[in-house]
Specification:
The complex is a heterodimer of chains A (85) and B (428).
Chain A: H1 9-36, H2 43-46, H3 48-84
Helix pairs in contact in A: 1-3
Chain B: H1 3-13, H2 17-22, E1 43-48, H3 52-64, E2 70-76, H4 80-89, E3 95-97, H5 100-106, E4 111-114, H6 121-130, E5 134-137, H7 145-158, E6 162-164, H8 172-182, E7 189-197, H9 214-219, H10 231-247, E8 253-259, E9 272-279, E10 283-290, E11 298-304, E12 307-310, E13 315-318, H11 326-339, E14 360-361, H12 370-384, H13 389-411, E15 414-415
Parallel strand pairs in B: 1-2, 1-4, 2-3, 4-5, 5-6, 7-10
Antiparallel strand pairs in B: 7-11, 8-9, 8-15, 9-10, 11-12, 12-13, 13-14
Helix pairs in contact in B: 3-12, 6-7, 7-13, 10-13
Classes of the chains: A mainly alpha (85), B alpha/beta (428).
Chain lengths: 85, 428
């Protein structure tokens, strides 16, 4: 039997917050790049798609890192539980 | 580019010395004859030679036949199947002939479109113009320099229009390209490069008797010296015209070499050539033709110190590519610092690398058919009774230099155009 997947409001808020932070970070990266590489300020608009892709890429990286962290922690807990019993 | 954008572009250039000097014929689209749809305004057109190319030209004329009030009044081909096919294409509404002289004698017409084997062009064109008929003849003009000059002289003496089918003269891409070159966007033009490479035996018809038989010489005429200079007159001629047009000059000389190194089946005409045309100011145009490898396809490049144009591909490349957006440079630099390997040994000499840059379109969204535009222009000129002299001169010059290139390749010498074949440069 398939169970409903429940995502708590708190988790949704946290993920949206993270996405927002990454979006701001990507825009700041664009500003930094424009300053360092003497780009045009119009690139803040014209390169919006690159900023969007960068945001999604960083979010995917964060998912991967968190996945690795939680899986590692679960494995470690299982291992230590086995040794204690 | 659609038709409206094309007309707008021509209108925008109207009155400029550039258009008047280098391509005056385009004004025919913004300043048409104004003829109506009555029977007296109708242009009567005949076709001589309705094989592969002739059929294409006929289909193009049929595209605008009703809109431009044209009557196809007669068709002629020595090959009965072609003649019958052409008559069927116009639903039997024109008479078919096997002999062009009979056609010209019997049928009243204003213009004739000739697409027969090269060696037949001269007599047909001269006969038609002497009978008061305007002529559109496929390129190149003729098989010999004497015939080519005789055609030009007949055009001058008769006062009849004679246009040669180098359709790139009517390509919107080239208008834009020449305008950009004229504006100095390539800097100083230092070299032209061209090539036409295919992997084909170039046999149009399989005939009993095989290569070298009388029938093969008649049907696959492009393979025999008596009738054609092969790739040079049938293909390269287009690019020789382009080179003259871009540089606004004729070559000073041509040298070349050629051989039969693959299609050794009994044909005579070479299957590969390498040519070098020398123009004023030390500019050279190098040109390759090959029938045994199609890797490079067809290309024509104009190279200057500030950019390159690849005209057949409708592309323009600035010598210094535009800087990519800053964020992409940043990402690229990060990627490079992470993934680039550091060599511990390697070549001590780094070759000059080609610029990796996709370039820009010369004429974006190009949709027009230049053969159709050329034929439309021809009909308009027939209505007006005259065409800009430069248009005929472009055809003449490309044809004479095609024949010289053929001769230079066969003799292995450097050739210039003999004085007797030079035509007086005309003001358009």
């Amino acid at each position: 039997m398939i169970k409903d997947l429940i995502i708590k409001e708190k988790v949704i808020r946290q993920e949206l917050m993270l996405l927002g932070v990454l979006f701001v970070f990507s825009n700041l990266t664009n500003v930094y790049a424009i300053l360092v590489h003497q780009g045009s300020w119009s690139e803040l608009i014209s390169q919006f798609h690159v900023v969007g892709l960068l945001t999604l890429f960083l979010y995917a990286v964060s998912l991967l890192l968190r996945g690795l962290f939680y899986s590692g922690r679960a494995v470690w807990r299982l291992t230590t539980k086995g040794t204690q019993s | 580019m659609n038709r409206r954008a094309f007309i707008e572009m021509i209108s925008g250039l109207a009155g400029t010395t550039f258009l008047a000097a280098q391509m005056p014929w385009f004004t025919v689209f913004t300043n048409p004859s104004g003829a109506g749809m009555s029977a007296s305004d109708r242009v009567r057109v005949g076709f001589i030679g309705v094989g592969s190319r002739g059929q294409t030209l006929m289909l193009n004329v049929q595209e605008f036949q009703a809109r431009m009030n044209i009557d196809i009044v007669a068709v002629c081909d020595t090959w009965p199947e072609h003649k019958e096919r052409a008559v069927a294409m116009i639903n039997g509404q024109a008479e078919g002939f096997l002999d062009y002289r009979e056609m010209l004698d019997k049928v009243q017409m204003d213009a004739v479109i000739i697409a027969t084997p090269l060696h037949e062009h001269a007599q047909m064109t001269i006969d038609a113009m002497q009978m008061g008929i305007h002529v559109f003849v496929e390129k190149a003009m003729a098989r010999t320099l004497d015939d080519t000059k005789a055609m030009y002289d007949a055009h001058i003496d008769s006062g009849k229009i004679m246009l040669v089918g180098h359709q790139r003269l009517f390509s919107p891409v080239y208008i834009k390209a020449l305008e950009m070159i004229n504006n100095g966007e390539l800097g100083k033009i230092t070299k032209l490069r061209g090539w036409w490479t295919r992997n084909t035996p170039w046999i149009f018809y399989d005939v009993p008797g095989g290569r070298g038989s009388a029938l093969d010489r008649q049907r696959n005429w492009r393979l025999y010296w008596d009738y054609s200079a092969g790739q040079i007159t049938e293909l390269g001629s287009h690019h020789f015209q382009l080179a003259n047009w871009v540089l606004d000059s004729e070559p000073l000389s041509v040298m070349g070499s050629g051989s039969l190194n693959y299609h050794t089946d009994g044909r005579e005409v070479y299957d590969n050539y390498s040519l070098v045309f020398t123009y004023p100011n030390g500019v050279h145009f190098t040109y390759d033709l090959l029938d045994s490898n199609r890797h490079n396809g067809v290309g024509f490049q104009v190279l200057g110190n500030e950019g390159t144009m690849q005209l057949e591909a409708n592309r323009h490349f600035a010598e210094t590519p535009p800087r990519p957006p800053a964020i992409r440079t940043l990402i690229h630099n990060i990627e490079k610092s992470i993934f680039e390997t550091i060599p511990i040994g390697g070549a001590t000499w780094i070759p000059a690398e080609a610029v990796k840059y996709g370039g820009n379109y010369i004429s974006p969204d190009y949709q027009l058919n230049e053969t159709l535009l050329f034929l439309e222009g021809f009909i308009e000129f027939v209505r007006k009774g005259e065409a800009p002299p430069k248009l005929t001169e472009e055809g003449y010059n490309a044809s004479t230099w095609s024949l010289l290139a053929d001769e230079a390749s066969r003799e292995g010498t450097i050739l210039t155009l003999p004085e007797k074949y030079k035509i007086k440069p005309c003001q358009a």
